[in-house]
Inverse folding.
């Protein structure tokens, strides 16, 4: 179940909100590094950083302007600031018969390859299977998420249940009053330990910071997607947008934002709460951006 949810998040939701793209390699032009049926994961990189040897995905300037994923063999910098490239498939005898000018300031560069998964994805796109996924996956996601949100372990310790913890019981945790008048621990804007763990998982502290930066850059449009779904009373779209935001917030240590998206999911059927929820998401996004900026200075 966890693997299925992770796959949906990575291939269906992640590209929409996290700035990377996935594509199935259909030919053997990049063999043996990328074989037919492999999924290529590409991330946004500045055009100014492109160098010979990089593998990029771009629209070819001829014929059907299809997207090609080939290795850069020459970079041509124009006096007008433009950048053009010549490319070649690793398995091809000759270079591609064109010179492509890269439009804009960014280009998609191949950063990872997932072997053979593309064949599975193509099978899943058959009409019968795709219809089952369209109607079945949202139900699985919603059910699993609600179980995670609403399942709370019961305290077995009678002494612990007899009285709430005080500030002294939680040294270093500031308290925040709730509407009911009780105090609860105030979550950190940015949990540095989570971000450090992400750096360990990626084997790159800089990579973790780049991921967090991308998260911040895309945050306004992701919150806007939640707001749009609320206004349209599209519950499915709201759940998908909030779930994606919740997962990625947890990955970068945006603890308050993660907690607020969980709260929003619990109140998704209460339209009167939506304006306040959206305002809080924007506010917490600004707080996280400031906190991340403090780390990177």
């Amino acid at each position: 179940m966890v693997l299925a949810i992770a796959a949906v998040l990575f291939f269906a939701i992640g590209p929409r909100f996290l700035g990377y793209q996935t594509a199935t390699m259909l030919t053997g032009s990049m063999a043996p590094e990328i074989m037919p049926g492999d999924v290529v994961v590409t991330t946004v990189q500045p055009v100014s950083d492109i160098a010979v040897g990089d593998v990029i995905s771009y629209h070819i300037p001829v014929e059907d302007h299809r997207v090609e994923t080939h290795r850069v063999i020459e970079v041509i910098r124009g006096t007008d600031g433009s950048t053009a490239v010549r490319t070649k498939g690793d398995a091809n005898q000759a270079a591609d018969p064109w010179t492509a000018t890269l439009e804009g300031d960014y280009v998609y560069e191949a950063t990872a390859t997932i072997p053979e998964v593309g064949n599975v994805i193509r099978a899943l796109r058959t009409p019968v299977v795709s219809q089952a996924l369209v109607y079945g996956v949202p139900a699985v996601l919603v059910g699993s998420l609600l179980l995670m949100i609403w399942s709370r372990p019961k305290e077995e310790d009678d002494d612990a249940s007899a009285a709430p913890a005080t500030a002294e019981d939680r040294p270093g945790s500031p308290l925040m009053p709730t509407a009911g008048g009780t105090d609860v621990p105030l979550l950190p804007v940015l949990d540095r330990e989570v971000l450090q763990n992400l750096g360990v998982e990626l084997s790159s502290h800089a990579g973790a910071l780049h991921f967090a930066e991308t998260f911040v850059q895309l945050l306004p449009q992701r919150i806007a997607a939640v707001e749009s779904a609320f206004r349209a009373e599209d519950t499915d779209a709201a759940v998908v947008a909030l779930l994606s935001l919740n997962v990625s917030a947890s990955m970068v240590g945006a603890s308050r934002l993660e907690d607020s998206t969980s709260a929003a999911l619990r109140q998704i059927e209460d339209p009167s709460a939506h304006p306040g929820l959206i305002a809080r998401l924007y506010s917490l996004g600004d707080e996280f951006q400031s906190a991340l900026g403090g780390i990177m200075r």
